[in-house]
Amino acid sequence: MAEAAAALGQFDFAGDDHVVPFQVEGLDVRGRAVQLGPMLDAILERHHYPAPVARLLAEVVVLTVLLGTSLKFDGKFTVQTKGDGPVDLLVADFSTPENVRAYARFDQALLNKAVEAGETEPEQLLGKGVLAFTIDQGKFAQPYQGIVALDGTSLEEIAGVYFRQSEQIPTRVRLAAAELFDRDDAGKPRHRWRAGGLVAQFLPEAPERMRHPDLHGGDGDNGDRPHGEDDAWVEARSLVETIDADELTDPLVGTERLLFRLFHERGVRVYEPRAVFDRCSCSRDKIKGVLKGFSAEEIEESQENGEIAVTCEFCSTTYRFEPTELQPAE
Questions:
Q1: 24 vs 301, residue with greater confidence
Q2: CATH architecture of 18-210+230-278
Q3: Integer distance in angstroms from the first to the last C-alpha of the chain?
Q4: Which residues of 284-312 are buried (b: 16+ CB within 10 A; e: fewer)?
Q5: CATH 3.55.30.10 domain range(s) in the chain
Q6: Is pLDDT larger for residue 139 or for residue 136?
Q7: Count of other CB atoms within 10 angstroms of residue 233
Q8: pTM of the model
Q9: What is the pLDDT of residues 198-216, one digit of tens each?
């Protein structure tokens, strides 16, 4: 079903936790933008992550949502970092059509040292390693995975490298996360997390216009690109780069207002927003199925106080099983 376009003022603003697809016909640009509020806050507060870790995971969640909502099939899209820094693992996945979950792993001692040294930039906390993008279309298709290096640059820049290497599409990604301190309806102090992002891609009808003058090698690159970037993409990218981080997280700005500020002179269209939710894919039956594959010895070793307890790293739900529920593998 085709998405219905609308002009500003013809419908209510999408608000938090809704991805807004958009198109700028005058620049041959398509993209998506989002502001995350309650959904993100629930994910982060569930684990009581330290602020530097929460901020990093928030950016990964935004990136996952922006890219995952572009899937045209039933499946799962996962973004995962693995590095040698204090935050050695970040993972977020989007299960179509709307479910998001995320988790971070970090070394508290190394994190404390980094904070004391003032080394809390994302690239410093992640260290050297890899950023992996995985698309899983289910049991009837092989998963696709694209991997780029964590090389000391921001997640925004690394995501751009992924698109240049894997899709050969000029892409600009913007990400931001922030803490919001305000008061609730009763006047009590309140702390919340917010994040936002935007991805813009240059998709002209003539594919030869999609040039990457700084990209060499790889599939589809003939090594002969004498011209610079297309003027339309230069303009679009320049506009996206004017975004202030506060604009991506400020609830008073809103996604549609930001898009209008950026592209109104070129005729931006926004499409029906897509809601996303904090929903984990774990279940008692799934975990029970895994445990039934354990040997009798493994089941015995997994017991504590006469039961086996398994806690989901994503949603923190604990599932408890009596040993008699599990039949050892033959």
A1: 24
A2: 3-Layer(bab) Sandwich (3.55)
A3: 49
A4: eeebeeebeebeeeebeebeeeeebebeb
A5: 18-210+230-278
A6: 136
A7: 23
A8: 0.86
A9: 999 998 877 777 766 554 4
